[in-house]
Amino acid sequence: MTDHIKIYKADGKWAVRSGGAILGESSNALELHEGDLEPVVYFPRADIAMAFLDQSDKTSHCRHKGDATYFSIVNMSSVTKDAVWSYENPIEAVAEIKGYLAFVTGDTVKVERL
């Protein structure tokens, strides 16, 4: 069922920023490739400043990964609603992403390789 998902250690060091704040940097990020979709970088929770994240009520389900929990990014200048997701208990085939966070990138959230 998850043959179209591949997970690799992301090369190099990665950072995530929002509203001028650095939310985290990691040399232990994972890169998830799912079919024809753009790869998604997942950061270990331990490398993210969780004080900037508030768990929201939003959830979603992916038949290939499981149930996702969402967080909003709260900093001094803004709130970016539901900008982070995590599979707290992913299905066994993608168990590597447990304890990792992914970010919805856009105008206010940037994920970049340093």
From TrEMBL:
Residues 15-105 form the DUF427 domain. InterPro entries: DUF427 (IPR007361), DUF427_sf (IPR038694). It holds the Pfam family NTP_transf_9. It comes from the Bacteria. This is DUF427 domain-containing protein. It comes from Phaeobacter gallaeciensis.
